[in-house]
From TrEMBL:
Protein name, per record: Protein SirB1 N-terminal domain-containing protein
InterPro entries in alphabetical order: SirB1_N (IPR032698), TPR-like_helical_dom_sf (IPR011990)
Classification via SUPFAM superfamilies: TPR-like
Pfam families, alphabetized: TPR_9, Transglut_core2
Lineage: Bacteria, Bacillati, Cyanobacteriota, Cyanophyceae, Nostocales
Membership in a protein family: Belongs to the UPF0162 family.
Residue span, Protein SirB1 N-terminal domain: 42-193
Length: 274
């Protein structure tokens, strides 16, 4: 498996209608660019095994809170999954193979583990894209139960979400209804890639940051800010033709953007260099 094959498999998986995308497969194809020798099937089989073991522990009466309690006991007490508090920005926290092997992750990847296992025992969950801290909730109409997979499956209600939001931003932030809206599978995958993008930018690993942006653009081809960022990364990496193309497209999409003057200056520089 080489880099381009992993990208190809990722592109094929996400071309399907959102409800048909296999999240675990797509997340493993993201990981496969970093770890070309992994076998996604091995990790998918691990989820199947977890589900079989969990099924034996589930209560006979499937009340949601009791099922959640059983899942939490299995994932966190028995298997030892936990949030990586000590090294939150370690890129391994964003790669599903590492999360399964190390039993460590960040909110969104632990949420993905939780979703994959719960789906396999007929208790489907959906992602909730709360700013700064990804949550999940049971796929039950009108439910206001949320689960924090990063904090050992803590059960939360809207007031708890408000408190968590204040905690994340270290100041009072008004909880808006859209903060607790469910996210699509494409949005979830884009958020994993956005985490990797910012980690790699901070580490000055520009080629890896570019690879993350390119995959976000496979998910959302018209995303103006991602086009800008791909253009800026290409500029830094000396890929001037691609940089000019992306930055021109960005200005067409967002002519009044706050950074439009800076982007025009870079484009002028690129034209003088060509």
């Amino acid at each position: 498996m080489n880099f381009s094959s992993a990208r190809q498999y990722f592109a094929q998986e996400i071309q399907q209608p959102d409800e048909h995308i296999d999240l675990a497969k797509a997340a493993l194809y993201i990981a496969q660019e970093e770890y070309p020798n992994i076998d996604p099937e091995e990790y998918l089989n691990a989820f199947d095994t977890m589900a079989v073991e969990l099924q034996e522990r589930l209560p006979s009466q499937r009340y949601p809170l009791r099922v959640i309690q059983s899942i939490n006991q299995y994932l966190y007490d028995d298997l030892g999954f936990a949030g990586n508090q000590k090294d939150y920005y370690d890129p391994r926290n964003s790669f599903l193979n590492n999360v399964i092997e190390r039993r460590l992750g960040i909110p969104i990847t632990l949420a993905l583990v939780y979703m994959e296992v719960s789906r396999r025992v007929d208790f489907p969950m959906v992602g909730v894209g709360m700013p700064g801290h990804f949550l999940i909730r049971p796929e039950i109409p009108d439910t206001e139960i949320f689960i924090d997979a990063f904090n050992f499956g803590e059960v939360m209600f809207p007031q708890d979400c408000q408190e968590r939001l204040n905690q994340v931003y270290q100041q009072p932030v008004q909880l808006q209804p859209e903060f607790l809206a469910t996210v699509s599978k494409r949005q979830l995958l884009a958020r994993i890639l956005a985490n990797l993008k910012y980690i790699y930018l901070n580490q000055q690993e520009l080629e890896k940051a570019l690879a993350a942006v390119e995959r976000i653009l496979l998910l959302f081809p018209g995303a103006a800010l991602e086009l800008r960022d791909r253009g800026l990364l290409c500029y830094e990496l000396g890929l001037f033709a691609q940089a000019a193309n992306d930055l021109e497209t960005y200005l067409i999409k967002a002519p009044q953007a706050e950074d439009a003057v800076t982007i025009r200056q870079i484009l002028s520089l690129l034209k003088r260099m060509s």
